[in-house]
Amino acid sequence: MHTSPLSRRTVLAGTAAAAALTATPALQGRTSAAEQPPSPTYRWRTAVIGGTGFVTGVLFHPTVRGLAYARTDIGGAYRWDDRTARWTPLTDHLGWDDWNLLGVEAVAVDPAHPARVYLALGAYSQSWAGNGAILRSEDRGATWTRTDLTVKLGANEDGRGTGERLLVDPRDSDTLWLGTRHDGLLKSTDRGATWKAADTFPAAPNPTGQGVTLLVAAGRTLYAGWGDSDGTTASANLFRTADGTTWEPVPGQPAGTAAKVPVRAAYDRHTRELYVTYANAPGPNGQSDGSVHKLATATGKWTEVTPVKPGGTTQDGSADTFGYGGAAVDARRPGTVVVSTNNRWAAVDTLYRTTDGGRTWTSLKDSAVFDVSETPFLKWGEAAPKFGWWIQAVAVDPYDSEHLVYGTGATLYGTRDLRRWAPQIRGLEETAVRQLISPPTGEAHLISGLGDIGVMYHERLTASPSRGMATNPVLGSATGLAQAALRPSYVVRAGWGDHGNGAFSRDGGRTWAPFAAQPAIAKDAPGPIAANADGSVLLWSFVHWDGTKHPAHRSSDNGATWTEVPSFPKGATPVADPADPAVFYVYDTDAGTLLASTDGGRTFAARATGLPSGDTQFKVVAAPGRSGDLWLSAKWNGLYRSTDGGAGFSKIDSCWASYTLGFGKAADGADYPAIYQVGSTGTITAVHRSDDGAKTWVRINDDAHQWGWTGEVITGDPRIHGRVYLATNGRGIQYGEPV
């Protein structure tokens, strides 16, 4: 759904498909593998923002001081090292074809073998997603052995913040258990190499349900939560096995709406009590009721220990509805437990802590002091940060009773004294990146448009942007970001916001002002936006979140007034010519047609037709500093180029698949900008660079740095040859430089 700039003012309407695809000799000739230049060595790092995504689970190792693991819904798994106070990513080696495995459903460790760690991977359980997989490591995740499953997992679906669904059996390190969404309980007796159904598990698999929500060991007895009960006493949602073979419902378990779904469980080995948090839905959204109960495993007695019952009212009269989420016990102090509320928007979520087995509780939010100076975006454009939301991951360090961490929808907070909190997030980046600009001048080498956290101005790549999220207005997910090529101090952005969905900057993105007005449709369907070469004209396209496309609008007065552009394809992405302010381009992905405007975006007419169509993964990019030099990145259809403003395109033979394309500073002695691409020149999808106008390519990433799906956007740095910025869907902004 992307377009590209154009340079010729004369509109060559009705160009035939044959003419549009005629290849010129200069663009022909695939270079053989033997002729390809050697690949340079690149150093890859993550541009620091800090977290920015949903940390769904944190697991301290019970027998190794300072070792912990974290899982995320779309950004892979991480290992914590207390000595360096840093998270190390463990799944960056997963490549393009394995993008679905960047969602981590569960983590398991083996207390008897401290170097062993297991991951259950799979983001989606829909038919279009691949099956899940188990990764097994003997060296804390430095290297992995993989087992592909025959079932799907759902690490980015409802219920992703519930308990660990993967467990090493405390009786036998070779035995592992895996709870699935739709295929019941699985068991492995060879440390995850092979799996089969646990036939004695009494709950029937549900092809549309939640399935197993948690697995936990209480001594030698295993417990499994079940998310598909109806909340009645006749419909059990917690099962146990004492012998590893026969499973049964736990007698006397709580029932009712407030205990419909077991969310998390934690075992106090000192008191032999199992604490279980419940909600009326798996979360993280949709919970409005919940409770906390404990089970004396020796006697079978249940006791409700809910800190505060949902359903009251706040001071302003709002309904205080929520569920319960995280649960963690203090391994050093009997009867000391921490639980979290979840989906509590009126009174704001909190952690409750008890030191007397649940008889009394203290809200840790009430005394919390936050320091988010390391990740200023957590202020969300306000004076002070909030405690967080989507709190389902809670963990207490087994070697330090006052080292407590909890995950939110945007970060991981930690404390060492139960009062002062700060992000414990170094090394963990989960941003879903949507747009990238590398300005040719100014303080910042990078401006980014992101999912959930709007637009960031990166003064440095090694520290979280000091201004945090772009404000005035604050936006949620960014949908558009553009810079005037001949006036780089002028930048525009668009996205989802509560107080206007578009803004402009006259100082290169440091500060912003909202458009004085916006089309009515902008409130519900903000989409991509473009500024012409001198910033005098804006084109704003509109796409609803459900995919519904709407007419684009044009402004020639910096967003004070807008007029509809009927000839612009609905929902398409406008692209400005970088050298001619009168020219815009747009690619109609439905028709496979390149259209151009030579009157500043007032009207568009077709130029090349018969181009690839039928998919949104098309992107037109204009070569910087040149009018009419357009490149069409057409997914598995490959790469095309036009040097006449889109009147005709020639297919580039040096690659057979192209997912996204960008430009950077030319190599010394080269007369054309460096081209960066995510695509396929051989057998795999990788990140490539060409210094000779796409005649030849070199791969610049490696097998250890792949990051799953990377097809959104790539751009080079116009001031530093070889530096490239790459958008990922869950691993933030990766940037690479030649060593």
Concise summary:
It contains one helix and 58 strands. It comes from Streptomyces phaeoluteigriseus.
What are its keywords?
mainly beta; Methylamine Dehydrogenase, Chain H; five-stranded mixed β-sheet; four-stranded antiparallel β-sheet; 58 strands; disordered N terminus; signal; Xyloglucanase_GH74; hydrolase; 1,4-beta-glucanase
Summarize the SSE layout with pairings.
Layout: H1 17-20, E1 42-46, E2 55-60, E3 67-72, E4 77-81, E5 86-89, E6 104-109, E7 117-121, E8 133-137, E9 145-148, E10 166-168, E11 176-179, E12 185-188, E13 196-197, E14 212-218, E15 221-226, E16 238-241, E17 248-249, E18 261-268, E19 273-279, E20 290-296, E21 301-304, E22 312-313, E23 319-320, E24 323-329, E25 337-342, E26 351-354, E27 362-363, E28 369-370, E29 394-396, E30 404-407, E31 412-415, E32 420-423, E33 433-437, E34 446-450, E35 454-458, E36 475-484, E37 487-497, E38 502-505, E39 513-514, E40 526-531, E41 538-543, E42 549-555, E43 563-565, E44 574-576, E45 584-588, E46 593-597, E47 605-606, E48 619-622, E49 630-633, E50 639-642, E51 650-652, E52 657-664, E53 674-680, E54 686-690, E55 698-699, E56 714-716, E57 724-727, E58 733-738
Parallel strand pairs: 28-32
Antiparallel strand pairs: 1-58, 2-3, 3-4, 4-5, 6-7, 7-8, 8-9, 10-11, 11-12, 12-13, 14-15, 15-16, 16-17, 18-19, 19-20, 20-21, 22-23, 24-25, 25-26, 26-27, 29-30, 30-31, 31-32, 33-34, 34-35, 36-37, 37-38, 38-39, 40-41, 41-42, 42-43, 44-45, 45-46, 46-47, 48-49, 49-50, 50-51, 52-53, 53-54, 54-55, ...
